[in-house]
Amino acid sequence: MARDGDTCIWCGRVLGGLVPPTTEHVVPRLKGGPSWLANEVAACRRCNAERGHRAPVDWLEECERRGWRPDAERLARALDALQLAIDHEGGQRRARPYLDAQRRRLHRRLPPGPDGRTVAS
Questions:
Q1: Residue 28 contacts residue 41 (beta carbons within 8 Å)
Q2: Phi, psi of 63 (to 5 degrees)
Q3: How far lies 71's CA from each of 56, 89, 96, 119, in Å?
Q4: Rg (alpha carbons) of the chain, rounded to whole number
Q5: Domain positions in the chain
């Protein structure tokens, strides 16, 4: 929570009290996501449980359909940080293509910044 802030990345609710915080794997373990801090984000228990093994961008879109306030920019930063961690640490053969596809999908959704790149790039 110190890194991610005190809100759920998916629904935007403030974590704590009646909204218990959890850490969630951005790239699910089932898809080869590592058990590294770089692959975890702060999420509420409800979102963590309901997302299951859905892809991050699929769940982000579902959260938007539900009228929640997912933080796409924070998700993009988390995916980019995970990519850097994998590049540095190596391995994670199964996670690489999945992560690349999710990053491409998400970056296409984000508005370009003043330099023409997406906000999280």
A1: no
A2: -60, -40
A3: 11, 27, 23, 12
A4: 14
A5: 21-109
Return d(Cα 76, Cα 120) in angstroms, integer: 6
pLDDT per residue of the chain (121 residues) written in tens, 0 to 9:
788 889 999 999 999 999 999 999 999 999 999 999 999 999 999 999 999 999 999 999 999 999 999 999 999 999 999 999 999 998 888 899 999 999 999 999 877 666 555 444 4
Q: How many other CB atoms sit within 10 Å of the CB of residue 34? A: 19
Give residue 120's Cα distance to chain centre.
12
Q: Where are the alpha helices (DSSP H) in the chain?
A: 45-51, 56-65, 72-89, 95-109
The span from the CA of 56 to the CA of 40, in Å, is 12
How much is the pTM? 0.86
Tokens standing for 84?
């850097």
